[in-house]
Structure formats: C-alpha cells, structure tokens
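Task 17 of the worksheet. Students: predict the tertiary structure of the chain below and write it out as structure tokens. Keep your answer in the requested format; marks are given for formatting as well as content.
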Amino acid sequence: MRPALVLVAALAATSPLVPGFARAQTAPAAPPTAAAPANPVVARVGTEVIHATDLLALARALPPSMQRLPQATLYPILLTQAVDRVALSQLARKEGLDKDPQVASAMKIAAEAALQNALLTKVVAPQVTPAEVRAAYEKEYAGKPGPEEVHARHILVKTKAEAEAIIAELNKGASFSKLAQKDSIDGSAPQGGDLGFFTKDKMVAPFADAAFALKPGQWTEKPVHTQFGWHVIKVIARRRQPAPTYTQVADQIRQKMIAKAVQDEVALARKGLKVQVFNPDGSVPSVTDTAKPPPTKP
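Model answer:
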C-alpha cells in the first residue's frame, strides 16, 4: 500500500463518518523506511496541490455503501474526483466565472458556512462530550419519576346537546363503553372509546386538561369542546412512566445541548456588533417597522 493511501486510511480510521474507509483489505504493508509527511500531497493539478485530507473530506461525503469499498478501489475514485474538481474550478476561473456576481455570492456564502461550521465545531464539541451528556442525564432524569399518564375512554359527538344527553345517561348508570360504541363518531368507538394510556402533551389542551383533572372512575360533568367536536371523557386509571434510560434519551439530551451551545455562541458573536437591517428593496425601515418585535416561531 502506498504511503499516501496508508495516511488517508489512518486519518479515516479516526472518523466515525467514514466507517469502512480504513478497513484493511490486504496484509499490512511493510513500514516505510522514512516517516510519512503529516498530510502528504497526493496530486498536483497545474499550480494547485491536493492533500490526503482533501480526499478524506470527499470520503466523508460519500454514501455509506461507497465508504465500505475496499481501499484499493476507493482511493483512485477519490483521487480522480479531487483532480476533476480542481480542474473544473481552474477552467471556471479562466473563463471569469468567479467574477460573476451570483457565483461570487455563492462562493462567499459557502466560505462563510465553512467558517461557521469550523467555529461551532471548535466551540461546541468540547461542551457536548459523552461525560457532559451523562452528567446532564443524571441531573435531569436519573432517579426522577417520568411523566404522568392517564388511561381514558371518550365519546365524541357533533353537538353540545348530544354530549349533555350522554352525560345524563351515564349519571343514570349507563355503560360508558356501550354508549361510545352506539353514539361516538370517533374511530375509537368500536373499542368503546378506549384511548389507552397517554401523556398530557399527546392530546389537545382542552381535552388533556379535562382528562388529567379526573380521578379513576370519574367522567366529565360537562361536555368538553375541541376542534373535533364535543367530548365526554372517562378516566380508567392513572400512572407515572418510569424514568427513561440513558440510552433512550441520550440523543435528545445531546441535541438540546448542541442547540444551547450554538445559541450561546451566536449571542457572543452578535455582542457589541452594530447590526442594521433593511427592507427587501433596500430601503430603511420606518420607525414603526423597527419597533415591531422579531417574529417568533409558532
């Protein structure tokens, strides 16, 4: 195996993004007589050079099926791709395309995106280590009860009067499940209106508030209105979920930590900067416009 290929494979072996790129396909090559450069040049295209790390960047962008190709197959593919990219870029510059306003804008955006990613990777990665994720789990989840759930049935009808009539029948001893099968227009009617266990966030607010205010065996004394119609709700049981395991919530914790770290870095980047914004036509916003708060996410 050539020294350049050995280096690229070694680099890839440290990256989880390229799981198969460093897999040996043949017997190990004899160690080179001299130390290989830290990041050797693997090709020259005109006045530009291509380094081993450039191939690694291309390898990371490959689909997983290609990343698992043998090294002897993958290396020339990556090398050809890298050479072609540089050659095409050089030709585009010769034709002056880098001076085209739209191309220049796209190049600027790409360069800024690369800088942003580099900065955020440098800042965020040390804050979202496995140890930090585990510590967040221990603080937020370990030893604490999970969210409360209720097991409920419901009857959905079109009018308030229908719902009130059903409640009157229940108060006289009628079977909730039989009334649901007879009168409910919800898809749960064949099951007697049984919705199983659910947490409060799984239902629309009026329905959830009413259900979680009931004790087992109770039903709503007044109809509950939602965008779906009028409900009569009966709670069968209540319970708490067990605390989630680390494996179940590790990714969720990690994403939350990443988002927080990115928000903090953006706030730091904006601190002390004078920022001016303009209307789509480039005009200065009026005093009324600038006084409006920024839009918030729904």
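Marker's comment: Strands lie at 41-45, 48-51, 148-157, 194-199, 224-226, 229-240. The mean pLDDT is 86.
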